[in-house]
Write a structure and sequence with these properties.
The chain is an alpha/beta fold and 235 residues long. It contains nine helices and nine strands. The strands form two sheets. The chain has a five-stranded mixed beta sheet with strand order 1-3-2-4-5, sandwiched between helices.
Length: 235
């Protein structure tokens, strides 16, 4: 499949700057990294959207190669898709949230391309929420001990995530993890599902325990290790 002509792989930051200064309509900016598997899905979505919205320019930027641009757009995770018009950011989608990317491009670029955006019906929104909650329930129960962090257990991508991983390792606790940076639906949905606004989040037997401070206090009191299923403690 050939890449649409309105997709530009940025080689020089002046390409993007010139487009933003000269264009009176919206542009789509896709930040990616070669090491991030989830970028492959969004890459395909971007190419498909570029075919549909042929009057819109789609810029692909390797985030780590263009640190100045990444910092300017406050890129903390890949993939990230931004819809911008001159200096204004109209929409931002972090993580492998293909449905949200499609929706935001349709909402912001549809008019310029003569394509009408569709607003999801209330019933569809309700069904989506129900499906997401079912998925979240499956995730928190995926292992007897589950932790939701930024990054991986081997390479946490924030100080709090690193701290909770170290605490679990020091207690010889076997656990599963989920990298919330790879899925924006999970990242946002779990906050509502658990009624807990921050990360990391630790679950035992599908029930929320809390974040770093609570886990630390429970380790000190000996309460945490008592809650861990026997099979989840390394001998």
């Amino acid at each position: 499949m050939s890449v649409p002509s309105n997709v530009i792989q940025v080689q020089d930051e002046t390409e993007l700057r010139s487009a933003l200064e000269e264009k009176s309509q919206e542009v789509v900016i896709y930040f990616w990294a070669s090491w991030a598997e989830q970028c492959k899905q969004i890459e395909s979505v971007i190419d498909d959207l570029a075919t549909k919205y042929s009057k819109t320019q789609f810029f692909k930027i390797e985030a780590e190669s263009f640190e100045e641009i990444s910092e300017a757009y406050e890129i903390n995770a890949v993939p990230t898709v931004i819809v911008a018009k001159k200096a204004k950011i109209l929409a931002r989608v972090e993580g492998a949230n293909a449905a949200e990317v499609v929706q935001q491009v349709a909402a912001n670029c549809g008019a310029a391309n003569g394509v009408g955006g569709q607003q999801p019906a209330a019933e569809s929104s309700s069904e989506f929420k129900q499906d997401l909650n079912t998925r979240l329930k499956g995730l928190v129960e995926r292992a007897p001990v589950m932790v939701f962090i930024k990054g991986t257990a081997a390479q946490p991508r924030c100080g709090f995530s690193k701290k909770i991983v170290n605490m679990l390792n020091e207690q010889n606790i076997k656990y599963g993890y989920f990298d919330i940076l790879t899925d924006e639906q999970v990242r946002q949905g779990l906050k509502e599902y658990s009624d807990w606004p921050t990360y990391p989040q630790l679950y035992i037997s599908g029930e929320l325990v809390g974040g770093v401070d609570i886990v630390s206090e429970m380790i000190e009191s000996g309460e945490l290790i008592e809650m861990i299923p026997e099979d989840s403690i390394a001998k």
